[in-house]
Predict the structure.
Amino acid sequence: MDWLDKIPKWIQIPLKILLPALCIFSGFLLLISDNLAEKLYLKEFRQQNGFAFGLIFTITLTLILVYIIFFASKPFIEKCKNYLVKRRLINKFKKLQPIYKSALYEMYRTPTHSLKMEMSNAVAAYLLNIHAIGCSQLSSVGYVFDFYLQPWAIWGIESEIADAEKVIRKFEKDKQKLQKRKDFNDIQQAYENAKEYLKFIQSPVNDSDESDEW
């Protein structure tokens, strides 16, 4: 089997070409009839090296199937990873203390999703440290910089908006049924809170109207 000595040179061929070629060739050699093999002068060759070609066919076919499964499932795996990362960051946002959320809400309500704050501001420093906000490199007024929301903070706010909308829709749809429940007052309070939250977060403010409390 001198042809085995040439295998290292085959490795230079791209796998996406080499594997299918080896699979087709070895499978063809194994599966053709004796009459066809004899006409192609491959019958004796197949008898002498049948085991090697059977091994090559099995290995290459397995690798091809694994490649197909891997590349077919890669987009799904990436979507799952992105979803889990996004959910983890949203949960991180929901655990923030109210004072930090308030600053993020103010940024979200501006057209540019940004807010001017001093670099020494404790709220800005904390949010910058956890990468909830970013900071411009230039300042036009001393130590006052433009801080802007990072994507995951926007995801967290939009998740809270979606939760509030669900509470409102559920209450308005099942109001008569909910009135019979003992905890109706709590449910109604959650409904009112959700309406107030949406009214607040969806009321845009101009950069000139930004609060000075930060």
In short: The chain has a mean pLDDT of 82. The longest strand covers residues 144-149. Residues 170 and 191 are 9 Å apart (CA to CA). The beta strands are 114-118, 133-135, 144-149.
